[in-house]
Amino acid sequence: MTAQSQPVMNAFSVDVEDWYQVSDFEDQVRLDEWDRYESRVVANTRRILGILGEFKVKGTFFILTWNAERHPALVEEIAAEGHEIATHGYSHRLLYEQGRDLYRRDLERSQEILHKILGRQAYGYRAPSFSVTTKSMWALDVMLEAGLEYDSSIFPVQDSLYGIPGALRFPFVIHQAGRRKLVEFPMTTTRFGSRNLPLGGGAYLRLLPYQYMRWGMRRVNREGEPALVYLHPWEIDTQQPRLKSRGKRGISTHYIRLDSMESKLRRLLSDFRFAPMRDVLAQRGWLHS
Ligand SMILES: [Zn+2]
Hints:
Elements: E1 9-16, H1 41-54, E2 60-63, H2 65-70, H3 72-80, E3 84-87, H4 95-98, H5 100-118, E4 124-125, H6 139-145, E5 150-151, E6 172-177, E7 180-184, E8 189-192, E9 195-198, H7 202-207, H8 210-222, E10 228-231, H9 261-271, E11 273-275, H10 277-283
Parallel strand pairs: 1-2, 1-10, 1-11, 2-3, 4-5, 5-7
Antiparallel strand pairs: 6-7, 8-9
Zinc ion is lined by residues 15, 17, 88, 92, 128.
């Protein structure tokens, strides 16, 4: 088999946050009250670890480090199974609402927590709800200063909460300071006419038929490029408590088709090849392995 006929290695990722920590519930679930809500993140993350184990797939886990502070053993367990640990920040506040100084503290705090648990910081970062937009490009400087090598927060689509529609669709160097560079691994889209359609995972995977995801990922791989899949531990949890919310967009998709996610995840894992994000970036020469 020639190198060209090898199936493309895609990137797999999980944003490790609990069901009540999402942007959709932000107005009614305050950060200083998070401890009052039923914690389900450990059990749900373990279920995902179990499924990945069945398919022998390793991925990247972006830890919301408020959870790491309370469940350090979970972070150790994920790392011990050979997955990459990255950071999803500490508080899950949208970057363009935090501003530069709060963001710096949030990111530094998350790096300190991971360092305390693992003896090293994270190389990769994903912003809450993809909130690196044209309103928060200052965040890239802060990321480099915090020791990050790659960011995975830009969705090259138009959306009311996030997105930079004209952004490049595949990994690129987004920022440089001296000899240090920050690589961006954008969320996956497929080109349709003059528009980018979102693939990625999360709500798009949950709400839309699996065939859409498979069609889109195959198109991306035919371009010779890796797709990037993401999901959240709460998305496979049909038993999670119910909160009423109109979300950030006037309608919340949080509880829709949770029952479809596990089987879609299994199909993805059997239909495509996956590796942690840092490995995919290194394999393609964007980062040193
Ligand atoms: Zn998140």
